[in-house]
Specification:
Elements (H helix, E strand, L loop, with lengths): L19 E5 L3 H13 L3 E5 L2 H10 L4 E5 L7 H11 L5 E5 L4 H9 L4 E4 L4 H21 L3 E4 L2 E4 L4 E4 L2 E3 L3 H12 L7 H8 L10 H13 L8 E4 L3 E4 L9
Parallel strand pairs: 1-2, 1-3, 3-4, 4-5
Antiparallel strand pairs: 6-7, 7-8, 8-9, 10-11
């Protein structure tokens, strides 16, 4: 196959958990070339050489994305993609094929493919398309989180309501946003400057104590009437939402 290169610089040397790609390709030489290129781009890659094995693997493990050929033994790529999308609609699929007509592409998209690449192609372009899909699907998954929960606190992001142990708690918009940020970062110490930037979208003025004031407002509503206190101060560092936090409580 022409125009496949595999010499790529690492995408993100600091990335610890590499995205896991399932590659379904029956051409052994091409499979090895693509695998090498994706690994150099810092993806973890598992391979299958037919559609039936690919389907089995895709259902057994949690992959971040699937790259599949259309012409495959045992189960073709279109059928494979259709079944994957029916069972795992949020798993992005890139379809590879030597067939490049408009009708071929439409058939691939109708089967549920999220992107379509015609052979021959450059590994760099495949990596770029994979990164676009991973980012898009990650954003979609984040947007689908409508309820935050932590230790009896339940926050509806759609209805803007908060309760603890099924008792409704009324918060002002800023209190709501502050609690939301703390729940999104539960069990992590948050500095005053972080809170000011993320909740108030401003740089922290060390001459004011408005963060402390709002933390106290929140404590009175979230913790005051409950035995287990969840909002704590880490002296000299910031605040944390955590159960049974002992060091530096206030």
């Amino acid at each position: 196959m022409k125009n496949i290169t595999s010499s790529l610089p690492p995408q993100n040397p600091s990335h610890i958990l590499m995205p896991h790609i399932l590659l379904v390709e029956d051409d052994d030489r091409l499979s090895k070339l693509i695998t090498k290129g994706l690994q150099e781009a810092e993806f973890e890659v598992s391979t299958a050489y037919d559609g039936s094995t690919g389907l089995k693997l895709a259902l057994q493990k949690n992959y971040d994305l699937v790259v599949t050929d259309i012409v495959l033994p045992k189960k073709d790529g279109l059928e494979f993609c259709n079944e994957i999308k029916a069972l795992k609609p949020n798993l992005p699929v890139v379809m590879l094929t030597a067939l490049g007509t408009t009708d071929d592409k439409l058939e691939g998209f109708d089967a549920g493919a999220d992107d379509y690449m015609t052979k021959p192609f450059e590994i760099r372009e495949l990596v770029a398309r994979i990164n676009v899909l991973l980012k898009r699907f990650s954003q979609q998954r984040q947007q689908k989180i409508f309820v935050l929960k932590y230790e009896g606190i339940e926050m509806s992001l759609e209805q803007k309501t908060v309760s603890r142990d099924h008792i409704s708690i009324k918060l002002t918009p800023k209190e709501f946003n502050l609690l939301k940020f703390m729940m999104e970062n539960s069990e992590k110490v948050l500095s005053r400057s972080e809170i000011a930037e993320k909740v108030w979208e401003t740089h922290f003025d060390t001459g004011t104590n408005f963060i402390d004031v709002y933390i106290n407002y929140l404590r009175k509503k979230i913790d005051k009437d409950f035995e287990n206190k969840l909002i704590h101060t880490k002296a000299g560092m910031g605040f944390i939402l955590k159960k049974d936090y002992e060091t530096g409580n206030s």
